[in-house]
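ok trying this again, last paste got cut off
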Amino acid sequence: MNGTYILVLKLNSRKNIKVGVLGEIKFKKGFYCYVGSAIGDTKIENRCRRHLKKKKVTKWHIDYLRKEAEITEIFAIPSKKKEECEIAEKILRKADSFIPRFGSSDCNCKSHLFYFKDKKSLSKLSSIFSRGIRIYQKI
């Protein structure tokens, strides 16, 4: 399946994390939503399997955060075309804040990583999540 995916991550405490060329970023305790895509030969399932692994070569911005944060859910939005930026823009409007330039070095988006202070705040994304298919949920 091709399309866009949303990783929902939980960070249990404040952390300063060095994120490649972005440098050290102060991450707050709470939830983060990362928007990515898998188009063409890359399948969402394969990309998300990689994100679920803790030990891997650090390649993308999300890999740095992933070392510290736990993935709690993954939603897939199947599509033949790239909708990553459109979905990121919708999430940005509902987020408590965002990490500038995170995951968006190949586009003009402000970010592809968005912060939500708690589950109640995260629930503002229910209409976006309902568009997708939950492909992972941590029990």
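PB: full thing came through this time. The chain has one domain: 3-137.
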